[in-house]
Recover the amino acids of this structure.
């Protein structure tokens, strides 16, 4: 009975509520029912046609589609239509919301583009959303956000925009260098400390028009990272010149050697002309290759390093063939072959992924340490000078090429390579001093014995191992190679504050690297 009475009471209350609602005309909203009963959205083509014919009719449809359309392409289209046909505060707010919250990269990109197109009057208030989008996982969203920030963003965005000018992708870095300069140009270089009015840009970024009203106001430049423009064409020129210089030197060297080795006295007389011709040809060829392919200094240096190590290995191997003049002819031949082989190997690397900076550094370190150890060991066995030199050059060149190629993809840090080099030098010197004090044969016509050579070689190897291991214990986050904080930079052109009361901006040229 109690249960039945309760059911009757509940039914009575529901009936009374329905009656009152029908009388007052007020019905409680049900979002699920509303979404289900909402009229279907027009197609993309119809939305675009309505937006161009009558924006007043299209406005509610576009705003609803921007929020609720199931297809990302439709949401992106409506954002672009709102930006071009209904620019205003509400549109900027809708676009910023899409940029922040939409799960599809296509829509987020359209949101950034929308903010950039509605103009700074409406979109500058959403600079924070654009700056946050610079960390978006999708690169298209990042680049579009940078474009919009440069077009409508507030002055404070320049630091975040300029930070991406060092992006590892050269094309992205070039875009953001342009964006940073566009943002800088919008606000100028002038600064007036008294500018603290609400809504005005920070004092360090006031527009030139503001400063021009006060001719005595001091001026200053934004941080150098925002103003420095890496001159890409200069970088190409430097790498091209480096390869051209190397080609000229090798052509000049190998031409006279080959002619003198095979042409006798007559060849020696024309050796200078041959060297000049080969130097010109090789310099022109490698300059053209550098301009077309090896367009950065690390890429150009890959060819120079491998070509040089190949030449050293070939010349040293020639010295081991016998005694002069046979050894001289062999060295002339093999040095030329080694140079060509090394240059070809470098070009093969650049066709794919060039060696890392750590691999290039390890190649040089291995060449010096191995060549020194080989030369000391050869001298301890009584080799004549030209053959001792041959062992030094051959072992050093081969070890350098081997280390560069075998470790070409290795993520080697500067600390292990520097530690191995320093350890080899210190330990080799200590081993030499030790044997100078204990070797009984020193000073008796034979400067050293086999024991001396092996002790020095072992010292170099042990020192390199300990130094390299010590370098690996240092944190990788502070290693310039592994952390990417040490980069070869091309010559740059920047604007810095000049001397004087007004500190007028002065264009300056700078060369160097960066930690």
């Amino acid at each position: 009975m109690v249960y039945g009475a309760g059911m009757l009471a509940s039914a009575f209350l529901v009936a009374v509520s329905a009656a009152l609602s029908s009388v007052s005309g007020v019905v409680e909203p049900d979002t699920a029912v509303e979404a289900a009963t909402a009229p279907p959205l027009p197609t993309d083509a119809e939305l675009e046609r309505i937006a161009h014919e009558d924006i007043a009719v299209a406005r509610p449809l576009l705003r609803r589609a921007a929020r609720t359309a199931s297809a990302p392409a439709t949401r992106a289209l409506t954002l672009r239509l709102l930006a071009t046909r209904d620019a205003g505060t509400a549109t900027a707010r809708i676009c910023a919301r899409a940029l922040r919250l939409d799960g599809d990269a296509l829509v987020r990109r359209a949101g950034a583009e929308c903010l950039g197109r509605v103009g700074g009057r409406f979109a500058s208030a959403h600079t924070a959303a654009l700056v946050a989008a610079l960390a978006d996982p999708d690169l298209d969203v990042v680049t579009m956000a940078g474009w919009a920030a440069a077009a409508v963003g507030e002055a404070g965005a320049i630091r975040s925009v300029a930070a991406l000018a060092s992006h590892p992708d050269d094309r992205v870095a070039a875009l953001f260098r342009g964006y940073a300069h566009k943002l800088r140009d919008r606000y100028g270089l002038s600064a007036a400390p008294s500018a603290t009015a609400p809504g005005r840009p920070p004092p360090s970024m006031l527009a030139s028009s503001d400063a021009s009203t006060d001719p005595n106001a001091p001026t200053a430049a934004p941080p150098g990272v925002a103003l420095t423009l890496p001159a890409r064409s200069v970088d190409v020129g430097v790498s091209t010149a480096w390869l051209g210089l190397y080609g000229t030197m090798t052509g000049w060297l190998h031409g006279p050697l080959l002619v003198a080795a095979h042409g006798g006295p007559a060849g020696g007389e024309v050796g200078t002309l041959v060297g000049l011709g080969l130097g010109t040809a090789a310099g022109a060829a490698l300059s053209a290759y550098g301009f077309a392919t090896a367009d950065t200094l690390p890429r150009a240096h890959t060819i120079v390093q491998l070509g040089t190590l190949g030449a050293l290995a070939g010349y040293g191997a020639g010295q081991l063939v016998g005694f002069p003049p046979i050894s001289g002819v062999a060295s002339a031949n093999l040095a030329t072959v080694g140079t060509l082989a090394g240059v070809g190997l470098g070009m093969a690397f650049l066709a794919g992924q060039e060696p890392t900076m750590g691999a290039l550094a390890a190649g040089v370190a291995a060449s010096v340490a191995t060549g020194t150890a080989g030369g000391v060991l050869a001298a301890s066995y009584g080799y004549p000078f030209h053959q001792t030199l041959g062992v030094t050059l051959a072992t050093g060149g081969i070890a350098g090429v081997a280390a560069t190629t075998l470790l070409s993809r290795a993520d080697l840090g500067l600390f292990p390579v520097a530690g191995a080099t320093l350890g080899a030098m210190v330990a080799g010197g200590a081993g030499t001093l030790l044997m100078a004090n204990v070797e009984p044969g020193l000073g008796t016509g034979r400067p050293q014995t086999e024991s001396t050579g092996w002790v020095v070689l072992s010292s170099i190897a042990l020192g390199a191992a300990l130094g390299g291991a010590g370098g690996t214990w240092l944190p990788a986050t502070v290693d310039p190679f592994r952390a990417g904080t040490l980069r070869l930079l091309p010559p740059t052109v920047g604007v810095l504050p000049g001397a004087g009361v007004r500190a007028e901006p002065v264009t300056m040229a700078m060369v160097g690297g960066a930690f």
Summary: Confidence is low (pLDDT under 50) at residues 1-37, 189-231, 490-515. The first strand starts at residue 229 and ends at 230. The beta strands are 229-230, 487-488, 492-497, 505-510, 513-514. Residues 232-292 form the longest helix (61 residues).
